[in-house]
Specification:
CATH superfamily of the largest domain: NAD(P)-binding Rossmann-like Domain
Strand content: 15-25%
CATH class of the largest domain: Alpha Beta
Order of helices and strands: EHEHEEHEHHHEHEEHEHEHEEH
Bound molecules: 2-keto-D-gluconic acid
CATH topology of the largest domain: Rossmann fold
Shape: globular
Largest sheet: 7 strands, parallel
Number of helices: 11
Strand order of the largest sheet: 8-7-6-9-10-11-12
Oligomer: single chain
Mean pLDDT: 96
């Protein structure tokens, strides 16, 4: 039996590649010198795409794949996939929810702690001899007992909130409606009011056209000069220009960001700021979780080609 042809938009860990190559004829778009020629050659036979969300970078890709049946996203966020176009062509879409939730929440909370306690600067203080030469490290702000806002109380937001309870924080959240499982948390529908209430604002909502720049200039200013913004969702949820201006002027105290517009190429203004912690979009980046995500990508593909129910369908 001939193996179905699948397209990998970006590279996968070796442990996934070995498994994928055992089942499929794998075409690697990221290795192609001439993408156009590559797609002209392989595009007509591709039945599935496995992607890490870089479909945005390959806009217009699916029109070059006339036999495409399924897109399996290696991640919970599928904002890079044109769902409308997929719906029209009957292309199935899957993602990898749940398996990454705890790691993403862990990183968000770690970013809050690292940034609030100035741990990156403190590390440098020790290594560059400042401790010996200048003495005590400048005092930073506490985390425990302070106010947190969670924008988007889905799976990841809920796990963030659960962890914050361990720091005796006062937790409020915003979502399209109050959640029955949000025990002990205050519901504040308006993101501006949520930000006004919070010392730390976590952005944990799934990105879509509807949430673009939901963290607006007003939200950022409401968080204020003592506030910290933590983003473990998508850059598009934040008005990045407003964020940069607020960080530069001091209208916002600080930020801890795992995602950026145009990543991995950041706006260079971020790198000039010492009130921002920058991370390379690795909230789900543990060996355990990435293995589970890869397995879920493969399980979805296998179910599709077996004509079985998809384990984690989006469409
Ligand atoms: C990435 C993510 O998919 O789950 C998501 O939505 O953004 C991540 O898990 C992962 O970093 C692989 O690129």
């Amino acid at each position: 039996m001939t193996k179905p042809e699948i397209l990998l938009v970006g590279p996968y860990p070796e442990w996934d590649l070995v498994e994928l190559e055992a089942q499929y004829a794998v075409r690697k778009l990221y290795e192609a010198d001439d993408r156009e020629a590559f797609l002209k050659l392989h595009g007509p036979n591709i039945r599935a795409v496995a992607t890490r969300g870089e479909l945005g970078a390959a806009a217009g890709l699916i029109v070059k794949l006339p036999k495409l049946e399924v897109i399996s996203v290696y991640g919970v966020g599928y904002d890079a996939v044109d769902l409308q176009a997929c719906r029209e062509r009957g292309i199935r879409v899957t993602n990898t929810p749940d398996v990454l939730t705890n790691d993403v929440a862990d990183l968000g909370v770690a970013m809050m702690l690292v940034q609030s306690r100035g741990m990156i600067g403190a590390e440098t203080w020790v290594r560059d001899g400042s401790w010996e030469a200048k003495g005590l490290y400048p005092l930073k702000r506490r985390v425990w007992g302070r106010k947190a806002g969670v924008l988007g109380l889905g799976r990841i937001g809920f796990e963030v909130a659960k962890r914050l309870k361990g720091f005796d924080m006062d937790i409020a959240y915003s979502d399209v409606s109050a959640k029955p499982y949000a025990e002990g948390m205050i519901f504040i529908a308006d993101p501006v009011e949520l930000a006004r209430h919070a010392d730390f604002l976590f952005v944990t909502l799934a990105a879509s056209a509807a949430t673009k720049h939901i963290v607006s200039k007003d939200v950022i200013e409401a968080l204020g000069p003592e506030g910290m913004l933590i983003n473990i969702s998508r850059a598009s949820n934040i008005d990045e220009e407003a964020l940069l201006s607020a960080l530069e002027s001091g209208a916002l105290g600080s930020a801890a960001l795992d995602v950026f517009e145009g990543e991995p190429k950041l706006n260079p203004r971020f790198l000039k700021l010492d009130n921002v912690l920058v991370q390379p979009h690795h909230a789900s980046g543990t060996i355990e979780t990435r293995k589970a995500m890869g397995k879920l990508v493969r399980d979805n593909l296998a179910a599709h080609f077996a004509g079985a129910a998809l384990p984690t369908p989006v469409l």
